[in-house]
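Q: Joint fold for the lines below.
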Amino acid sequence: MKHIQTLETRDLAASAKNGGCGECQTSCQSACKTSCGVANQQCENCSEDK
Amino acid sequence: MIHQYKLNGYNIVLDVYSGSVHVVDDVAYDIIAMYETNTKDEIIDAILKKYADNPEVNREEILEIIDGIDDLKKNGKLFAEDKYAGLAINFKKKNNVIKALCLHVAHTCNLTCDYCFASQGKYQGERALMSFEVGKQAIDFLVANSGTRRNLEIDFFGGEPLMGWDVVKQLVAYARSIEKEKNKNFRFTLTTNGVLVDDEVIEFANKEMHNVVLSLDGRREIHDRLRRTVNNKGSYDIIVPKFQKFVESRGNKGYYVRGTFTHDNVDFTNDIFHMADLGFTELSMEPVVCSPDEPYALTEEDLPKLFEQYEILAKDMLRRQKEGKPITFYHYMIDLTGGPCIYKRVTGCGSGTEYMAVTPWGELFPCHQFVGDPAYSLGDVWKGVTNTAVQDKFRMCNAYARKECQDCWAKLYCSGGCAANSYHASGDITGIYEYGCKLFKKRMECAIMMKVAEQFDK
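A: Joint structure:
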């Protein structure tokens, strides 16, 4: 293998410039109700600033 | 900050502040671990010594790896700096929009689950059902405070919300009647124990509910141990056929079969696999949140077993995926390219600010887990938030609010964690629930490993 392989991920620094629309789901509203996490939330508007 | 770990045969390096995920070989893994604290010569010496038996590891090879790390660092994908500390406070200060309500349409329940944080639906208070008038006012309050935010969420919760089903239907009809005029899109969720699910509930929910959360703890003996009817009988046989019918007819609408595991079923993956055997594919299983004095409370001795269970689950999910029979586990859903922006990652769960719970009497609380605690009453749906001191405290809750989170690699995945869990564990919403943190980090390691495996193990 190559020594280091990088997965495609959303650029968090770039999202600081054009993220924050607030249209996404509230973290605890779907299935957990007892343990907050934001990692599994979907961006409603992500195609613009992936 | 980076986080390195080995799992399922992969060496994974997570760059916390850029969100980058790298898969590396053993030599690169070791070099990355030394990179920030050692000189180039020190790294070369140490690696040559460690891999003395491996002729492929030579000076040129090591320098090539170091060059690769230099490039990644230059491009902001490794050892990226933290530039987000100020974002959360400023963003939340500016943002007064409410976008989700948890409507407690019934503070009563037809089950008597021992571990229920809502004390069998009563939330340490009187039994009550929400009237249409209170619910309508809550919807008006949400719309009035939602600014330009278009997607609004309402969760019908309890107790058992189907005990107030007529009001639920009336409230959905009311919300739909004002949607267009107010330029809003309501997304409803119903969280139910299933006892009162019938064809009419299924039909209505499939038309109107964006998501349904169906409570099932897994195997019959596990489920029936704590989820008992008021006549002290198990509820498994009552609800499972109903849930199966519900899910079969759900079409492309969302659902989760959601369970709680306790000290009594530390081998909770068997309950998840049981759910899968029943035909359910969208699954969530949560650790019980309760006083450590309860006999079913999770213990320190359970932790290594739980870590192992999460690994078993991740590996088995990869197997199922390969065989074309995938299941989804809520906490392993992670979208590396279309996931949350940095604002979402630093601002926390939104309880008390953009998300609130409403009691049957119209009282507002920061979230469903604070309902019934008078110190956390925020106001009501007529006057709005009047206890601004408590709300301001929640406004300050974010990924940077807790000193314990400063050096934690997972803070941009949990965003500081659950305020209610922190409160119950430490007495303060800006404390931490360390046990929950440990489980959360393990889940994230597994979730990221699965993404790696999906890409590299085709």
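Q: Anything notable?
A: Chain B has two domains: 2-81, 98-458. Residues 2-81 of chain B form one domain.
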